[in-house]
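This section describes the prediction task in plain terms. A model, or a person checking by hand, is given the sequence of a single protein chain and must write out its three-dimensional structure as a string of tokens. No templates, partner chains or ligands are provided. The sample shown here is typical of the held-out split.
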Amino acid sequence: MRSWWMLAALSASCSVSSLALAQSAPPAPADPQGPGALALPGQASGPAAGDQSSAQAEPGAASDIVVTGIRASLSSSAQTKRDANQIVDSISAVDVGKFPDANIAESLQRITGVAIDRSGGEGQFITVRGLGPEFNTVLVNGRVMATDNAGREFSFDVLSSNMIQRTDVFKSPVPELQEGGIGATVNIVTARPLDGRSGLHAAAQIGGIYDRSRERVTPDLAATVSYANPDKTFGILLAGSYTKRESQTDTIAIDGWINGRPDIVQTIGGVPTIITGSDPRYPVTGNANLPQSVYYQRAQEERGRINVSGAVQFRPADNLEITVDGIYSRFNISGVTRRLDNFMAAPYYQPTFDGTNTATGLTMLGRDFIAANPQFLADNPTLTNNGVNAKVDHVYNTTNRKSDSYQIGGNIKWNPAENVELRLDVSTTGANRNSPNAYYVYGALLPYSYQFSLDGGKGIPSISYDNNIINNPDLMRLHYMGIDANRSRDRGSEYHFDTKWDVDGSIMRNVTLGGSYTERRKINRQFNNSDSNCTYCGYQVPIASGLLQPYEWGDLLGGGQNIPPSLFEVDPQAFLAYLNDPATLNIPSNGRTPEQQAAFAAQVQALDGGPFGVREQLRGTVNVQERLTAGYISMQFGNDRWTGNAGVRVIRTQVLSAGFDTPVTGIRNTPGDDTLQYTYGPATAIAVRNSYVNALPSANLKYNLTDKLIARAAFSQTITRPTLTDLGVNNDYGGRIAVPLSSGGNPNLLPFRSTNYDLSLEWYLSRVSYISVGGFYKDLSDFLELQTLPVQRFDRVYQDTRTRNGQSGTIKGIEVGGQYSFDALGGFVGGFGLTGNYTYVASSAERDQVLADFQCGYNGLSPHSANGSVFYEKYGISARVSYNWRSDYLRNCRDSQSRPRNRSSYGQLDFNVSYDLTPNFQVYLQGVNVTNEYIDEWSAIKERYLLQQETGARYNFGVRAKF
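The expected answer:
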């Protein structure tokens, strides 16, 4: 029932307001342009951390005086929330150059309705009210910042938190605010010199990062310098940071469950017999669920980040302010992933199933089995590898993410009259990414048949290995060798002009008119050796002595599960030299004669760069240009007790998607494997245009029930545009014999639309303490979702993955949050305080295509999420312990093997403690995931294990100084 959340919020409003009205005086007038006023592009608003004048208490409230630290941050955030003319939450810096957490996303998860996704144990993306990163707009100083990701989603790990002054999460829009966020619009505000104190000031941090998984210490350095003259007519600020981190992620995983009735082998009358899915002797009714592969993996990364930001401000006159600011980030990740992999393919020998038709055991057939049963191969002569499907792969994968991004902007604010304000903002942004990677696979077709089992106790898969065979270098052979060096380029520019006219003596407070023009182009180019990555496929070419070296990985995920003690790794340069050696290329394989092999070797050597050089694959090119032209009107109303705003934003979107069509001219099976290989015809340039217009009305109402109790209501219509790379004209093909795969772009996508309703109630107990409750409802249409659907191509049924429109549904929820400081108690106890929140979200989704055994909701939506913190701040000690938790959620409706991927509930304990040695020097220690919680994932039901992963605990420590 749609009204349930409204009734809950109104009931809370009535009960709390009755109590407050009995205790409170009439409300004081609210300042619509106070610290919580909306920051337009290039404009920062709100008090600066460390600015004592901005943190003074209300008259007569001596216990509320705060200057810096946790209370100052909470006070600033509460003031932003209280003064705002829309529904907003905020996180403010604790001090100059000191955000509450080392990672921005990890601070944002403490806001009601916000959850995060991590990369290498570090916060990277945010989800707001159940809507993932692609449905939230992230701005830096009110402007879009280019990203090195494939789409629009913003990676919070590219920015250091030391340069951030405040981050606001706008949950209800106004016409002035850039469109694009159905979940929320997040504005990251960097520090400005004229927002702080006059004079020369500096803050620096010298510290280290310790990851328990790597047991190494790496540097973490940051500094901020600012100057403002005594009259505050000129200011300059420069901030910089350097961070290096070494991390490790251990994983045991199943690469998806095949849902169907694939061929199996049963011993009938002492004779191995293939039973097809149509055979009445098939062991289950309905579809069986069998694992695609089991792998054990360790990924080690080295992350290096350099950030520089700066701002120059001029106030040549009281009515004129000019700001020029910029930010630059270089973020490089280099990693090595070692994996022991066991692909499983039909026919499966004597599988066993539980009551959910999930395979709990099966056998893959080795050479000894085939040799002992010659009639089996004679009866089935077309089986891959002559019936041998027991194999092991050792994988050595080098991964790299080399990225840089920047934003430069200029802003002029001019008041030609007391009641008129003009703003002009111009900015440019860019991002680049280069990802040179190598994926080396070497292994063996095994003589023995191995067993897969799904441990009923822990539900973790295991394989019956013979370590003497899988770790014998003489038995290993070359297989798949993939090299790629994909590149991404993102460029954008924005132009905003806004005019505000204040109205006196009227219920209308002001009128704001504005317009903007934005242009953005994202280009992804694909470089790889896909036309020669199977030069050695088939497990037939031996590996020179000494190239394979054992890697001991010890207690991977605590050990157990029959994990082999080691696998093979290689020196990439020496291994690549061996692969390119003409002598190696001329070793006959796959039934070729020496002459045929020589011709084949000459063919791959003639390729540009040779068989292991990269060549541009034009079929993978994505070149999307987007132009946005917008205009808006916003009107502010109010009197001493209430304020409101209403208006509309109209946007025209023009999209040009360019790329290449490369027809498939041939499909063949990979030797020694069931992977499909494709050949392509000549590329032809193609382009598709698309355009649409959206009118987005919004209204916000704020009513001061008392001087401490505020009620809010909001209505809006919002859109989220398709991710730029989803709009490409590209198509790609892959997969295996049993499950052919295709993927690509969809240039005709329309924006995802939502009609939104919000109610909230906020009770402010002091400048720091408050309690809030709110309800929201979103009516969704044209939902954008990455889907995998069966599509008929090349006389086969392909599982086609791409973003599509068409879904509709609803998201509704309740948010409860608050913070409380025990200052009034005085003494030691007066240093304590609490913060916390809880969010409940319910959803419904209507899909054109549904799964028979799983009802998909929305990706990233946890029905329940909560976090709480206890802090202490007194006597030079500043400490906080926080716990963040979210319930199970769907990561992707159709993931590996076109089946769901769900993540189990996850909770994480963090802490932050510092001590002031002197007024100018402080030592600190931060801990992240200190209890070393594991990540668990599963498919349609929890019995179908997908993944268990460990990222380990992380500690930041060091010394801060300020002058």
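For orientation: The CA atoms of residues 29 and 640 lie 5 Å apart.
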